[in-house]
Design a protein that fits this description.
Largest sheet: 10 strands, mixed
Number of domains: 4
Structural class: alpha/beta
Low-confidence stretches: 1-7
CATH topology of the largest domain: Rossmann fold
Strand content: 15-25%
CATH superfamily of the largest domain: Glycogen Phosphorylase B
């Protein structure tokens, strides 16, 4: 940890040691490091404290030495932070992965994402996608999982502000990498290490930056290289910036460039995890690398690459996926097709939802689904919706069997817990929650926590939220040169004792951020009740090009202004990780209003719930699964808006959901919060807080999420890769040959039900013929698909009775009387050793 030849000075940590703590982004979730920086710079705002490297540079070596020598307590904090940083690395052999999976010889995962939310001093994120990527990186470090992040280092950061007319405005600020917690990766000659990508008519040079995230590293790429043209230097200027051409350029840099960068820095991954379709082009580089290293054909490398690829999709909303016109996609993918040794049309077919339609757009999400063997959504409901959304990629496979699962998102609890709730959990759950936050039995101890300490922790957090909102607004007004009266009026924003509702989300129609305004009179009564005051702190952004989203935001701002509620409905401008922390920690109720089923998961309510807030949400995303699994005999873990029903009429759905929202606020939630005993404590409310935290914390935990990725995706993928690459990749060669054999033979396969007969009084027996063509009975699985009047559909294995040439006769019995009224069909599937799933696209035959 000590650099530049500097040694510990009389027990006082050196400048380089403290800078080392700030350079590793573990400080973003480690309370001790954050405490050190806050004590070192007592006049710094919470926003300023997100830039510890800049603060340390401002005082320099001599300034830091003087402060530490003058303050023994501060010196001890610095020493503890430095020692803790060193110990954290040394504890690696004792982490969960190294102990639970000590027999795993080697595993290195590369996690690709277009954004990572870790700290405001690395502003390369916009929303939930980046938030989950950040939580995954942090938990991978905590658990000792060898995972490398791959993203883009954008050259500009966006900032939001609301003008006097209530309209969202945006500005962009240039980012200087020298001021960010990143370092340029260099080669052995000391020159920047770069990779090159073939773009139409030229090569684009990509340079590589890196930063430490605990025990792991994050690599970030950008094209701001002098040898590139001005337009190519600007490719990585803005997150999701520019038009379609910029988007495909960025995604090629992220995916293809990212994989090349991993090879350049000496980290060829065993498994690649693609976080949404933005990173899909990594699959092409993976295939090309396997072809080169193992001498494989494209088809052989394709099945091998898919075995080691995990794909997570995060949105059921069509606009959340990219669709590139054929000409644009063809121009950029032609060099990659040539490198892979295939026709361009072959590559374009892999990214078309309708592969035979030459006019269909090229979708990276489709490419990622076709070139990966492990696919998942990010909540139970989202898994179901995703199977519906992309079922066409597995033609004629029932929705229930489409091979897309789910792993519910989670949050890194240590990052989001307030200091006060840290202390409550240390006492009631035990300090183990910091290292094993996914143990449900330990969390149940929280049911014994005292009401007074829970209430005290929440009161302090709510007061800090109010103070932070006031200070933030005051700083913004001063920066804009606002009148003194406006600046002084910030002291009236929000009430530290009032029931506080939090709402954060993108201002887009499906999120319904104005649902609570549906009945203005009822809302006014709630907000204006002097005996039971209610207030709303909300935040979020509309996309710069989304005028309808800006109108939604303006509607809320205008409502507050027109009704004199500027102090009760407060918008937090330019929302960032700093604001996210104090809002999640301070609110009493988290409001979430997406139109079911368009929210993939949503983690804002998890952050608030971890800090003693209750959730009021539509039955969507993660809330759908925990609500349906809750104990009906226990205190409520929160409340749901509306029902699980589907509405074709969106206006009717909004009306129904708004009525549900108001009804529960008026008659249950707000009265429960203000129902106090003689000690001034809301006992019923706190019983629900305890129940929520005690039963949901292990669900919220990103440690749980990452462990599921390891055991359900990464390790199986790694095992299949080893199996298929053994003996000079003979497994991959055989699998590719088998798939091709079945593809050629399958057009001749047919299925016909021949007889349906009663079996005494207990069920029915079905016989069906299978025309196998050139295949044998050992090549296939024959089944009866049964769809009963109630309950889920299921397959029954059939037994072969006889064979006459290519025709095999099968029989199956349904032995339950209740199934006599079921619908059924016979089907045949290929039996392919080594395939990841029974369902190989296009290889399923059904009876007519």
């Amino acid at each position: 940890m000590v650099g530049s030849g500097e040694r510990m000075d009389g027990g006082v940590p050196t400048y380089d040691q403290v800078v080392g703590v700030a350079r590793n982004l573990r400080w973003t979730w480690k309370t001790g490091a954050r405490t050190l920086f806050a004590r070192l710079f007592p006049d710094a705002s919470p926003e300023d404290l997100e830039w510890p490297l800049e603060l340390l540079e401002s005082i320099g070596r001599d300034g830091l030495r003087e402060r530490l020598r003058a303050d023994n307590e501060l010196a001890e904090l610095a020493r503890a932070a430095a020692d803790d940083a060193a110990a954290y690395i040394e504890e690696y052999p004792l982490t969960w992965f190294q102990t639970a999976h000590k027999d795993v010889a080697s595993l290195e995962i590369a996690y690709f994402a277009a954004e990572f939310a870790l700290t405001d001093s690395l502003p390369i994120f916009a929303g939930g996608l980046g938030a989950v990527a950040g939580e995954l990186m942090k938990s991978a470090s905590s658990l000792g999982i060898p995972l490398i992040g791959v993203g883009l280092l954008y050259q500009e950061s966006s900032h939001q502000w609301i003008d006097e007319q209530g309209i969202q405005q945006e500005s962009w600020a240039d980012l200087d990498p020298a001021e960010l917690p990143v370092e340029l990766v260099t080669g052995q000659d000391g020159a920047p290490l770069t990779v090159t990508l073939p773009f139409p008519g030229r090569d684009v040079v990509v340079q590589i930056w890196t930063t430490a995230v605990g025990r792991n590293r994050l690599y970030l790429l950008d094209t701001d290289v002098e040898s590139n043209s001005p337009s190519d230097r600007a490719i990585t200027s803005r997150l999701y910036g520019g038009g379609l051409e910029t988007r495909i350029q960025q995604e090629l840099v992220l995916g293809a460039g990212g994989f090349r960068a991993l090879l350049a820095v000496g980290h060829p991954p065993a498994v690649i995890h693609l976080n949404e379709g933005h990173a899909a082009f990594a699959t092409l580089e993976r295939i090309a690398s396997l072809q080169s290293d193992l001498g494989l054909t494209f088809d052989e490398a394709k099945v091998l690459g898919a075995a080691g690829t995990v794909f997570t999709t995060h949105t059921p909303v069509s606009a959340g996926h990219d669709y590139f016109p054929p000409a644009l996609a063809g121009a950029y993918l032609a060099p990659f097709a040539a490198r892979l040794g295939i026709e361009l049309e072959t590559l374009l077919r892999l990214g078309r939802y309708r592969p035979d339609d030459h006019l269909d757009t090229f979708c990276p999400t489709v490419l990622a689904l076709r070139l990966s063997d492990s696919h998942n959504g990010v909540s139970r409901l989202h898994g179901h919706i995703t199977r519906q959304q992309w079922s066409g990629l597995w033609p004629r496979v029932p929705i229930e069997e489409v091979p897309i699962g789910h792993i519910t998102n989670g949050i890194h609890l240590l990052t989001w817990m307030s200091d006060e709730f840290d202390q409550v959990l240390d006492r009631e759950v035990g300090r183990e929650w910091r290292t094993t936050p996914d143990d449900p039995e330990a969390w149940r101890n929280l049911l014994l926590a005292s009401d007074s300490e829970l209430w005290s922790a929440k009161q302090i957090a709510r007061t800090r939220l109010v103070e932070a909102v006031r200070a933030r607004r005051r700083a913004l007004l001063i920066h804009r040169g606002a009148d003194r009266d406006l600046v002084e009026a910030t002291g009236e924003l929000l009430d530290p004792a009032a029931f506080t509702i939090g709402f954060v989300g993108r201002f887009v129609a499906y999120k319904r951020p104005t649902l609570f305004l549906r009945d203005p009179e009822r809302l006014l009564r709630l907000l204006s009740d002097p005996a039971r005051p209610v207030q709303i702190a909300f935040a979020g952004k509309a996309h710069p090009d989304d005028e309808s989203g800006k109108d939604l935001l303006r509607t809320v701002v205008d409502f507050a202004a027109e009704n004199g509620l500027q102090n009760r409905i407060v918008f937090i401008e330019d929302f960032d990780t700093t604001a996210d922390r104090f809002l999640a920690r301070g609110v009493d109720l988290w409001l979430n209003t997406p139109r079911r089923p368009l929210e993939a998961c949503g983690i804002g309510g998890m952050k608030a719930g971890a800090n003693g807030a209750m959730n009021l949400s539509t039955l969507d995303g993660w809330w759908d699964e925990v609500w349906n699994d809750a104990d009906p005999m226990a205190p409520p873990i929160g409340w749901c808006i509306g029902t699980a029903g589907y509405f074709e009429d969106h206006d009717a759905q909004d009306e129904s959901d708004a009525e549900s929202l108001y009804e529960q606020l008026e008659h249950d939630i707000v009265p429960r919060f203000y129902e106090r005993d003689t000690d001034g404590l809301p006992r019923r409310w706190l019983a629900s807080v305890r129940q929520s935290m005690a039963t949901l914390a292990s669900t919220w935990s990103s440690n749980r999420m990452v462990q599921q990725y390891v055991e359900n995706a990464y390790l199986p993928a790694s095992s299949r890769m080893r199996l298929l690459t053994s003996s000079e990749a003979e497994g991959a060669r055989t699998l590719a040959r088998e798939i091709r054999r079945f593809e050629l033979a399958w057009p001749l396969v047919g299925v016909t039900i021949t007889n349906v007969a009663s079996i005494e009084a207990t069920g029915i027996e079905i016989g069906f013929d299978v025309d196998l063509g050139t295949l044998s009975p050992d090549d296939v699985d024959a089944e009866l698909w049964v769809d009963p009047p109630s309950g889920p559909a299921y397959p029954l294995a059939a037994s072969i009775e006889s064979r006459n040439g290519p025709i095999a006769h099968y029989r199956v019995s349904m032995g339950l009387q209740s199934e006599r009224h079921a619908e059924f069909a016979a089907r045949v599937l290929p039996r392919i050793d080594g395939a990841a799933s029974r369902f190989v696209p296009g290889l399923i035959a059904w009876s007519h």
